[in-house]
Amino acid sequence: MSSKTLFEKVWEQHIVAEPKGEPTLLYIDLQLVHEVTSPQAFEGLRLAGRKVRRPDRTIATVDHNIPTTIEGRLNIVDQIAATQIATLRKNCAEFDIELYDVNSREQGIVHVIGPELGITKPGMTIVCGDSHTSTHGAFGALAFGIGTSEVEHVLATQTLPQSNPQTFRISVEGALPRGVTAKDTILAIIGTIGTDGATGCVIEYAGSAIRSLSMEGRMTICNMSIEAGARAGMIAPDETTFSYLKGRRFSPKGTDWDRAVEEWRKLPTDPGAKFDRELVIDAAALVPYVSWGTSPGMVAPVTSAVPDPAGAASEQERKGFERALEYMNLKAGTPLAEIAIDRVFIGSCTNGRIEDLRAAARIAAGHKVSSHVSAMVVPGSQTVKSQAEKEGLDRIFKEAGFDWREPGCSMCLGMNPDILSPGERCASTSNRNFEGRQGRGGRTHLVSPEMAAAAAIAGHFVDIRNWEVREEVTA
Amino acid sequence: MEPFKTITSLVAPLDRTNVDTDQIIPKQFLKRIERTGYGDFLFFDWRQTPEGKPIPEFVLNDPRYKNARILVAGKNFGCGSSREHAAWALSDFGFRCVIAPTFADIFFSNAGKNGIVLVRLSEEQVDRLLGNAQKVPNYQVTVSLEQQEVTDGQGFEASFEIDPFRKFCLLEGLDDIGLTLRHAAALDAYETEHDHAIWLKAK
Predict the structure, then answer these.
(1) Which of B:2-41 have CB within 8 Å of A?
(2) Which of A277, A467, B26, B95 has the greatest count of CB atoms below 10 A from its CB?
(3) pLDDT tens for each residue of A421-472
(4) Span A400-425, average pLDDT
(5) Which helix (H) or strand (E) holds A193?
(6) Around Cβ B39, how many Cβ atoms within 10 Å?
(7) What is the rounded average pLDDT of the residues A258-272?
(8) CA gap B5, B173 in Å, rounded
(9) CA gap A302, A335 in Å, rounded
(10) Nearest CA to B186 among A14, A348, A271, A242?
(11) How far apart are CA A459 and CA A387, in angstroms?
């Protein structure tokens, strides 16, 4: 038997048909649905008189435009947003889909709750009308974002026609230095290969630095695969994966569990399997990063300065750099650590999980948020929120002056009331620093949760490796 | 979906790389539950000031490019969010074709589902088109999907690659779900067997 990659194994197990001259018809094990990219898909089903083929392979939640204050949730002022949420409710009832609604104790960002509930599993094919679906690849699933027409296609047929992607292995070898996180690792990767560096590819992240990451860290890495243009990112399941999944609500139980683990153990890439592309990154050389521009590839070490467009590789890149610096109101040569910030956002499907909040709380404990900074923490889900409260993290954040919110996508994309005002500068643990992403005219710098917490307290970016931890936080 | 054979049209030059879908259609317009009516919001933040005044320098506000149905842009067009609203907005505004060196994957797929032809040309060819569209008055090109070529009748000729099946669907304006349901028997058989894999069950 020939050696196969993790991706190839998952792909081959999901082939329904391979019509000659056409894309492969792939079976989809799970579709996650949210309020923003689904209404037109359900409407399409109704117009064509079609049903949802597998409600048991579909779950829904509200995350993108839900307010993050209790009062805001009880009475959604934005009537268009309220209608969209009501429409999801109606569609889920009509098509018999389980909905983790706003009052559910398990509501949250779709990419946080899937793994938490044990719905996400190794070897699955998973889709969602959201580009950060790549998050679930951390479990060894093939998970990718799709558009609304494809959402409708999967609802109707539980399949998707897909052309075969290329495979790209990125091995991060060695130990990550202290203060360097999964977020820094993926920012470094995107900075190295570019925002279109993995277009048409499924990335497999491998190497000892990846293996030693927790599931939360692995999810952060896979989450931002799309920011390098990749269709998906995957990490082979191992003991870390199994111990995360064991005992979760929808994880297999008893002998089914043993049987499942036996199957999942077959998934990792075989020795000698060939990838279309390979890249090796030295973990020891990584540092904490800050994005300085309007594309996630525009990142630099926190110890460095805003780059000079004159050093760009091409004329097109130079124009892009200049435009980014103008939008960000930054001058080439300014040390990143001197950039003052107005806002801090800790949360999102990239960094809104319990481990992220623990890491940020450890930095914040015993300190105070700078007087000119407004900082908020938005847990990724109700489960994360209640766990954090059990551990007293909410108290640490509140005492330091952070705003403690209800779960949702929040200021990652600013579809709800959490937005930047024009000109405001934000240290954000989210995934995109596009123009206007967090509010028109707002300026986003992508960082790790630790770096965001430290920036909130200092009022500007700081090298987390020199941070004074005042109180150790124990879970 | 409207079939696409050949179009001849004015060309709107958008000389920017990494045009992300947040720019194509900003988030505040994603709250709607309709599939149509997004054209007015296309490139909203680039087209008008926060006070709602048109920004004259922006290409889509330039009267020279009014009614252009072909957009030319820099590499990695359509990166970022999976929002199909980006394709809906381009289509609703009147664009049937975008020419760029590269496109992001999800946008590529979404465009195809909405009858928008995405043409990949080399950076040099795209630069020439951008330059011509900026300098030559009333600059028009013809995009033939059947012939897989872009011409301007003034010496510019470029052929492009496209997946044969995607080409067929665009030429015919075919609905994907209908195509998939040709495999209904294979799907039923696969699914019955696949459901035994308890390790791949959602719940």
Answers:
(1) 15-18, 20, 22-23, 26-28, 30-35
(2) B26
(3) 999 999 999 999 999 999 999 999 999 999 999 999 999 999 999 998 988 8
(4) 97
(5) helix A182-193
(6) 15
(7) 98
(8) 10
(9) 8
(10) A14
(11) 28
E strand spans, B74-147: 97-100, 117-120, 140-144
Q: Round to whole Å and give the CA distance between A27 and A123.
A: 12
Characterize the bridge pairing of strands B6-14 and B70-73. parallel
DSSP string, A98-115: EEE-TTSTT-B-HHHHHH
Q: Measured between alpha carbons, how far is A239 from A250 in angstroms, rounded to an integer?
A: 18
DSSP string across A406-432:
-SSSGGGTT-SS--PPTT-EEEE-SS-
Q: Is B72 on the interface with A (CB under 8 A)?
A: no
ipTM (interface predicted TM) = 0.95
Between chains, do B22 and A435 touch, taking CB under 8 Å as contact? yes
pTM to 2 decimals?
A: 0.97
What's residue A1's pLDDT? 62
Say if B91 is an interface residue toward chain A (CB within 8 Å). no
Give me the helix-helix angle, B85-93 and B105-113, nearest 10°. 50
Q: How many CA atoms lie within 13 A of A327 on its CB side?
A: 24
Q: Pick the closest to residue A464 from A338, A354, A340, A360 (CA basis).
A: A360
| 3-class DSSP assignment, residue A221 | helix
- Mutual angle of helices A148-157 and B105-113, in 10-degree steps: 80
Q: Nearest CA to CA, how far is B156 from chain A (Å)?
A: 22
Which of B66, B130, B65, B141 minimizes the C-alpha distance to B100? B130
Instruction: Tally Cβ neighbours within 10 Å of residue A440.
Output: 18
